[in-house]
């Protein structure tokens, strides 16, 4: 078997992966760094992020306020030490990206411009029109080209982590172009593979978002954290699930029900004003807005379409000029994909699966409990997002924790011995598994798409915006049956060259494992918090559940959920307040004494 | 609109075929469906071996470029219904002028090499610590290069460019536009370093200004404009070099 060797290996080349690779190269230019990505890095899903990246930069703002907005937005499930680190380093990282050429939108005097965003009490979201993720990703990718220590493995698909003596020592990957299966060893591995929205039938996530990194870690023995927290973004275009950015509401868009009524005023989110008010109405947090949609739907106040119920997002009053300068991509997407012009028409929208708050459990340096394994970005759960992420916190999360993981992995790698020979035996076994169970197997009876659709329907039904114990238990059973049927899968494609069907089958395997972890965590958490709403346990229960769900995979493939207390530094758990009250009430500042050190 | 449409799709597997051929599939038509949805329908329901790239399905990742009835298109943004007049037949082929890996997948590594050659990153001669804050850039200065920063690397422009077809060494529209994106950025000081690659017979002087690249660009980047603009500056530089031999360079002139 072919083998190549590096010091630090990145799985994934999106925002977090490229930031980590550059950080590792800067910390120690002697290291050899590999970026292994199943797509060319500029195709990574960071590219689709629209609205912006939060980081305190203006005089009227403070780190404490950004921390408080994030912690209360996360329904007190965030680790506060992680949030404090995050808000402190986010502005530095965004500035660093400016230095690398990111075309941030500007004020007339040339300084960085910021916009409002949901759940944020101050304007602190940096943006590059409404293609922020695109510009960040291309800036990072183009900048990475000048770092010689970085070797790219473009269009290589990682199938397994190699673990020996309790330490991750590399990966097995398929080079799509040739179909070659080989080991790539490394002294440290960083997972930056993003989320897993494709587990659900209706998602903003790209086709490549299959929870690869979560499943790789989970199977290798690293636990996942808070997997029950799935974010539904309130404004997706029906049928395609294309995201209409929250910036559309930050610039002043209205949410209207079928009667043209700004229904959010009925959901404890404040009173409607003509201009947007921070932490109020349309600028409320995503979990509350998506939940409000479900209530409107149950009251019969939505509009029925062939692609589900919808409400309207109204931008008409903003005028063509504002839409063209601040929201050009929104207009382009609406015209190209929905055949409507938001300057003159209402945009049909419905909640759509967007983001995983949960992920591979890490500390604030991106380290997982499994030695040599790191994770950053959406694949990871540090946790700064708690039970509900605020819009525009995920892009800076990729940068802050990508950089931290890159540095930590570089330091760790420099102290490790070269990977030992026994991982190569594991790699050979993995190649045999891929060939016998997938590539060259004949006579299977199940189609990939049938099982995938079954999984998507099941997970949406039992682990959607509202859940209950009975449907979750039923969903868990159905997923187990789908796992069994997956073993009987049939491939039409037995070529080695660019076998995308093999890739899809392996991705489906990853998604089934991740889906199970979501359902098990959701079953275990018998309370409602943030994006996890149990109709059979409608209240938040801090006594039992001011804690993270930690899910391990047992040797027999089943899962085991444990609880880990949330880290509280300075903000005692309180009520989440939006609307007028959030304007008058000062956030509780430093109510706890900060721990020494 | 008919409820079915015929897709003729180029198929080629180097392990089985000596040359590409076409396979024909009948696909249901929904008014919301794009060509990519039809390909996904085939892969999911009919033949799982059909091979193509796609990801975001919102015209920003740049993966799903193909020839659709002879024109380079992002298949996620090309509606089936717009071909109803064409005898209900759509021909889908890999992007032209690229080597074909398999079916609709082209070989991109040469494009990546060209991209790196133009040094598409911000070059500074000084180092300014982050503590000094952002480099100032007014909205007007941003507008000066913004259009050229919109390239999604979909390579449709390479498939539209007859020069790429004749001379594979031509750096090509997207890479030149990207170089110009940095040349025109008020924060960049690297134009001199990019001259050798750009002001070269395989750089801007290869372009015969057919302008097809700009026509097919799904993001209105206008690579043809970037190339013409650079040609003018390069001529000025050449003339200036006689008058002011010590390092004056019009590529560094920006608002």
Describe the protein.
The complex is a heterodimer of chains A (about 600) and B (about 260). With about 600 residues, chain A is an alpha/beta fold. Helices cover about 35% and strands about 20% of the residues of chain A. Chain A contains 16 helices and 24 strands. Chain A has helices at about 15-25, 65-75, 80-100, 130-145, 210-220, 245-250, 285-300, 320-325, 330-340, 395-415, 420-440, 450-460, 470-485, 500-525, 540-545, 580-585, and strands spanning about 5, 10, 35, 55, 115, 125, 150-155, 155-165, 165-175, 180-185, 190, 225, 230-235, 255, 305, 310-315, 345-355, 360, 375, 380, 465, 535, 545-555, 560-565. In chain A, the strands form six sheets. Chain A has a five-stranded parallel β-sheet with strand order 7-3-2-11-19, sandwiched between helices. In chain A, helix 1 (about 15-25) runs parallel beside helix 4 (about 130-145), helix 5 (about 210-220) packs across helix 14 and helix 12 (about 450-460) packs antiparallel against helix 13 (about 470-485). The longest helix of chain A has 25 residues, at about 500-525. The N and C termini of chain A lie far apart (about 50 Å). Chain B is of the alpha+beta class. In chain B, a hairpin with a 2-residue loop joins strand 6 and strand 7. In chain B, helix 2 runs parallel beside helix 6 (about 175-185) and helix 6 packs across helix 9. Chain B folds into two domains: about 5-105, Roll (Ubiquitin-like (UB roll)); about 110-245, Fumarate Reductase Iron-sulfur Protein, Chain B, domain 2, CATH 1.10.1060. Chain B has nine helices and seven strands; from the N terminus they run E-E-H-E-E-E-E-E-H-H-H-H-H-H-H-H. The radius of gyration of chain B is 21 Å and the shape is elongated. The chains are: A alpha/beta (about 600), B alpha+beta (about 260). At the A-B interface, helix 3, helix 4, helix 9 and helix 14 of A face helix 1, helix 2 and helix 3 of B.
């Amino acid at each position: 078997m072919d083998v190549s060797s590096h010091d630090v290996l990145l799985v994934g080349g999106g925002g977090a992966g490229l930031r980590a690779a550059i950080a590792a190269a800067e910390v120690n230019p002697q290291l050899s760094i590999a970026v292994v990505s199943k797509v060319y890095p500029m195709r990574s899903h960071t590219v689709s992020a629209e609205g912006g990246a939060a980081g305190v930069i203006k005089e009227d703002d403070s780190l404490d306020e950004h921390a408080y907005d994030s912690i209360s937005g996360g329904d007190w499930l965030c680790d506060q030490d992680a949030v404090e680190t995050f808000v402190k380093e986010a502005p530095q990282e965004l500035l660093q990206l400016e230095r690398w050429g990111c075309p941030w939108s500007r004020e007339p005097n040339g300084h960085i411009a910021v916009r409002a965003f949901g759940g944020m009490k101050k304007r602190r979201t940096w943006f590059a029109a409404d293609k922020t993720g695109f510009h960040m990703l291309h800036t990072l990718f183009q900048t990475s080209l000048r770092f010689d220590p970085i070797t790219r493995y473009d269009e290589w698909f990682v199938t397994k982590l190699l673990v020996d003596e309790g330490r991750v020592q590399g990966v097995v990957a398929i080079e799509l172009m040739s179909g070659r299966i080989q080991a790539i060893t490394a002294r440290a591995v960083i997972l930056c593979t993003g989320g897993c929205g494709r587990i659900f039938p209706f998602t903003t996530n790209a086709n490549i978002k299959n929870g690869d990194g979560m499943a790789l870690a989970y199977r290798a023995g690293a636990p996942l954290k808070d997997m029950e927290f799935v974010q539904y973004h309130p404004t997706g275009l029906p049928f395609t699930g294309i995201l209409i950015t929250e910036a559309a509401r930050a610039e002043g868009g209205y949410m209207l029900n079928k009667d043209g009524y700004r229904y959010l005023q009925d959901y404890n989110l404040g009173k409607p004003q003509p201009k947007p008010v921070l932490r109020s109405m349309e600028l409320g947090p995503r979990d509350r807005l998506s939940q409000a949609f479900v209530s409107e739907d149950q009251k019969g106040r939505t509009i029925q379409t062939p692609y589900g119920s919808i409400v309207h997002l109204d931008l008409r009053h903003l005028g063509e000029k504002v839409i063209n300068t601040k929201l050009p991509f929104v207009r382009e997407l609406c015209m190209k994909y929905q055949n409507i012009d938001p300057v003159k028409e209402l945009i049909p929208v419905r909640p759509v699966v967007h983001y995983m708050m949960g992920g591979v459990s890490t500390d604030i340096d991106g380290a997982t409990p499994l030695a040599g394994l790191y994770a950053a970005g959406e694949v990871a759960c540090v946790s700064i997002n708690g039970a509900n992420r605020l819009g525009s916190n995920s892009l800076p999360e990729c940068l802050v924790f990508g950089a931290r993981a890159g540095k930590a992995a570089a330091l760790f790698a420099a102290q490790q011995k070269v990977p030992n020979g026994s991982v190569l035996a594991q790699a050979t076994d993995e190649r045999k598994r891929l060939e016998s169970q997938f590539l060259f197997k004949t006579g299977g009876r199940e189609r990939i798409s049938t099982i995938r659709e079954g999984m998507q329907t099941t997970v949406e039904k039992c682990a959607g915006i509202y859940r209950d114990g009975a449907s979750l238990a039923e969903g868990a059973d159905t997923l187990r049956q789908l796992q069994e049927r997956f073993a009987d899968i049939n491939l039409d494609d037995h070529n080695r060259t660019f076998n995308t069907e093999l890739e899809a089958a392996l991705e489906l395997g990853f998604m089934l494992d991740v889906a199970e972890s979501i359902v098990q965590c959701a079953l275990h958490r018998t309370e409602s918090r943030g994006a996890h709403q149990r109709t059979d346990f409608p209240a938040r229960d801090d006594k039992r559940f001011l804690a993270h769900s930690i899910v391990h995979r047992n040797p027999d493939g089943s899962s085991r959920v444990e609880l880990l207390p949330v880290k509280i530094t300075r903000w005692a758990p309180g009520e989440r307040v939006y609307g007028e009250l959030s304007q008058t009430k000062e956030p509780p500042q430093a109510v706890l004494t900060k721990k020494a050190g | 609109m008919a409820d079915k449409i015929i897709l003729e799709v180029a198929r080629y597997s180097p392990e089985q075929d000596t040359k590409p051929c076409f396979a024909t599939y009948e696909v249901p038509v929904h008014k919301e469906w794009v060509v990519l949805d039809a390909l996904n329908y085939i892969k999911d329901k009919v033949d799982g071996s059909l091979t193509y790239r796609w990801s975001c399905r919102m015209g920003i990742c740049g993966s799903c470029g193909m020839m659709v009835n002879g024109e380079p298109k992002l298949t996620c943004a090309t509606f089936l219904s717009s071909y109803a007049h064409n005898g209900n037949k759509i021909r889908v082929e890999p992007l032209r002028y690229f080597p074909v890996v398999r079916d609709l997948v082209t070989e991109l590594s040469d494009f990546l090499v060209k991209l790196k050659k133009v040094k598409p990153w911000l070059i500074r001669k000084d180092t300014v610590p982050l503590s000094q804050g952002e480099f100032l850039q007014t909205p007007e200065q941003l507008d000066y290069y913004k259009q050229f920063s919109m390239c999604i690397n979909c390579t449709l422009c390479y498939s539209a460019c007859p020069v790429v077809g004749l001379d594979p060494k031509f750096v090509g529209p997207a890479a030149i536009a990207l170089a110009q994106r940095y040349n025109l950025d008020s924060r960049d000081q690297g134009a001199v370093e990019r001259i050798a690659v750009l002001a070269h017979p395989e750089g801007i002087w290869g372009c015969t200004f057919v302008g097809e690249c700009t026509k097919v660009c799904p993001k209105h980047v206008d690579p043809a404009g970037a190339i013409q603009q650079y040609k003018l500056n390069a001529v000025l530089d050449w003339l200036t070099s006689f008058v002011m031999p010590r390092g004056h360079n019009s590529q560094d002139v920006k608002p």
